[in-house]
Amino acid sequence: MVEQHKKALEKQLWNIANALRGNMSADEFRDYILGFVFYKYLSERMDLYADAVLKEDGIKFDAIDENSEQGKEYLNAIKEEAIDHLGYFLKPSELFHVLAKKGESGEFILEALTEVLNHIEQSTMGTAAEDDFNGLFDDLDLTSNKLGKTEKAKNELISKILIHLDDIDFLHDETEIDVLGDAYEYLIGQFASGAGKKAGEFYTPPMVSKLLAKLVTMGKDKLKSVYDPTCGSGSLLLRVAKEVKDVGGFYGQESNPSTYNLARMNMILHGVHYRRFNIKQDDTLEQPHHLGERFEAVVANPPFSAKWSAAQGFLTDERFQDYGKLAPASKADFAFVQHMLHQLDDNGTMAVVLPHGVLFRGAAEGHIRKHLIQEKNCLDVVIGLPANIFYGTSIPTCILLLKKNRQHKGNVLFIDASQHFGKATNQNYLRDEDLAAILDAVEKRDQLETEKADKFAYVASIQEITVENEFNLNIPRYVDTFEDEEGVDLNSTIIKLGHLETDIIEINKTINSFCSELGINSTSKVIEWITLKVSFQK
Description:
- There is one protein chain.
- By secondary structure, the protein is an alpha/beta fold.
- It contains 19 helices and 13 strands.
- The chain folds into three domains: 2-195, N6 adenine-specific DNA methyltransferase, N-terminal domain (Ferritin), CATH 1.20.1260; 198-477, Rossmann fold; 495-537.
- It has helices at 2-20, 26-54, 69-85, 96-104, 110-122, 130-133, 151-166, 179-195, 197-200, 206-217, 235-241, 257-269, 333-343, 363-375, 432-444, 450-453, 462-468, 490-518, 523-537; strands at residues 222-223, 226-228, 246-247, 250-254, 277-281, 295-300, 344-355, 379-384, 397-402, 411-416, 422-423, 428-429, 457-461.
- A hairpin with a 4-residue loop joins strand 11 (422-423) and strand 12 (428-429).
């Protein structure tokens, strides 16, 4: 059922994409599609909730006469409960399928649709849900000329999108089906090559997300909280939730306004109540919004080697002041690590994806790395990932696993998974067996079977890291992946050389015979003659 629904969803999304293709970029029509997917989801949740409230009265929500006195009474009562339970309210005339049917019959729906989207936001004003719904549909510009040169053309295109989406069954009772997640993953996967690096900035491949989620939840069945300082669409936060029975709260921050909207949509669509998530829009390093909080799980795939101000004032910031130096302005990788570690609870675990350079670069980064290892002793595991598994970049990456109070204080586990992957057309990817091997090594650590550890995992003592390698964490220093060359059989080689010598003697005899027939004194004359002939022909 799940796979069947996924294929049906992809077919409809492809139909919509074909309708929009040529009018706008992949990024732009992805935002339109997901915005309308979200509107449909809100509409169906509203309809189902209202029907449940009205069940005792034997009334269907979409059958209520909005203009009658009795209808108005019903709507006012439902609105009050819906705002508290769902966080928003829609009238029967504002439901998705109502507008889709009007569009199918050729009616002009653009103005009505704009009003509906505005009303969803307005219905939350002055309530606890206001911040979570504010500006959610800002990216759906129904006046854009990219939708068509005339109002008629725009209306026809938007109607076509709604009609296609109206055919998708969200299967609200099927908890295994992740509609917006499936849609987002599919669209990114299809259009990442066109969207390029921009798309990859806020998209973590599913298996990498799964690995990060399993690492921070290992040994736990529930979490008080999970935090992602560069949360993108929120998919990584939601992936963590799949690994445990319950998550108390979801926290995140995202600088890109459009992606911030997607993150909030994603939370709501996954059934996360608006009171259980706290997603903010701003630059995490420059304007953090959760400094007073501490989180049991912290995960992130920050933009690789991003720029930040590295202003000297940060040396007195509680996140960075212990280290004495700041991450360079051209590479904020360690600034994100320091920020995340600051936000981590004493009993928590953090996992972050970073470029390989953080393992060995010197100067300020080397100083920070030394402090993390020697003074804080919070680095627990270093995992080398395969190259070319992220959209928009082929650089090799790694995962750092850190804990403030870790069990294995005297060592660090190194895992080289760089050669363990599957190949797709344009991307490499982690397979189930690759994921299992990494997690097995983390779980067993120094108890990992010798044959599994060979050329894959190594437990290095702190002394080995600090004294012998001077805080350089480059994985080949610890995990020996050297492959012995096949030995040379000297006896066989000598015999082969003897055969070659015999062959040369026979060839010389043949050439001398030709020379004799041609009246040439030596083989050198033959070679000279051949050379002159070739030169002449050129």
